[in-house]
Amino acid sequence: MPTPKLTFIGLGHMGTPMALNLLKAGFELSVYNRSADKTKPLTDAGAKAYTSLDEVRENSNVIFTMLADDAAVSSVFADLLKGSVSEKLFINMSTISSELTKRLSVEIESKGGYYLEAPVSGSVKPAVDGTLIILAAGREPDYEFATTYFEKLGKFSIYLGEVGQGAKAKLAINYYMSVVIEGLAETVLFAEKNGIDKETMMFIVNESACGSPMSKMKTPSIVQDNYPAAFPLKHMDKDIRLAQAEGLNTETSEAMKNIYQEAMQAKLGDDDLMAVLRAVKTKYFK
User: Fold this and answer.
1) What's the domain of life for this entry (predicted)?
2) Tell me: the pLDDT tens digits for 171-193?
């Protein structure tokens, strides 16, 4: 590949700190976001901002995407693929369906480009700290090339084989997280109902064998009943449904789908996924 010309598309909760870490590592980076105001933290740090996806395609040969869902990814790639993508590498770090990621791979490779899926496990703090887990799949030479960047974004990356396997691994780990978070909500509410306050119960959880970085990270939100988004609940609602579409068919998955949808109906989608506690409280602990 010629000299890499990097562009990062998607500057939300995750994309902004990830792009900043690439800049801090010394890579020259351009950025694009449909809401142009979100490019300011990156341009302040030295990035160049493009104003259209045509500019991105014409001036980049390594293009990262970190977008919200299938619809956003489909829309962005529809524009990117309107022109020549020959010899360009697309590194899609969004969490999307395996069906879409496979289709993008086929379409890009048919046009002479390269496609690597690389969804990440981790929320905003690991994104800021550069300690994400990167779940990559696609052509192995593309993965080997991309590790130069992955080393600055995560504590490790893992190569999972053909396109689609990264998406499936990401849905599996996110489903596990949905169960852990909902179970933590039930635990705290059950304890509170029986006279044990939230702070005490979370101390017990965190000091027990059940304690984890996740439980410790969520403790302030639980105690204060305040849920600034590290991982927006709406994304977990989406991921549970994607996991079911991939064949997850259990009573627990159906229960998770239902309670996260109730949280969505309660307008908690933009809050952190720990806000599912409020939906659990409304449904079971009135």
Assistant:
1) Bacteria
2) 999 999 999 999 999 999 999 99
